[in-house]
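Thread title: Can someone regenerate the structure for this chain?

I was given the following input by a collaborator and told the matching structure tokens would be attached. They weren't. Posting the sequence so someone can regenerate them.
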Amino acid sequence: MGAPVGRVTSFRDALGRFASGITVITSVGVDGAPAGFACQSFSSLSLDPPLVLFCVARTSTSWPKIAATGRFAVNILAADQRDVCRAFAASGGDKFAGVDWTRSPHGTAHLDGALATIDCAIADVHEAGDHLIVIGDVRELHAQREHGPLLYFRGGYAAGAVH
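Best answer:
Regenerated them for you:
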């Protein structure tokens, strides 16, 4: 039984007022094919040990491909990467078409132009409503460039400032 439509709308409206950074979660399968999806529900979790988390819809078709590898990379998008975000937010198709990337030594896909990449091993997955909470054990981090972040706020993109 789902929430009433008015309640869902109110929930989205209220939570849409929280600006969040946009990431793309990626990995590369044993067949060499990359998989990924746009994700705004990403957060640091622990400094000791270094852990991060993200949430993914149970209906995601990309997540099972990534989960099967046991690893993922978080690509933190820059303000000038709106097209990259749109490509990875779409369902189906070749999300990597026209997107430059490299395979990391950890077997994940690093998107060119990302502000930072974080390579992780999947440490745990928890069920939570219509989503999964994925916890990653951080293996390696790379700060790539200084640029404003791509943000999502009230249903649209915004650019953060660099100080």
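The domain at 21-151 is CATH 2.30.110.10 (Pnp Oxidase; Chain A).
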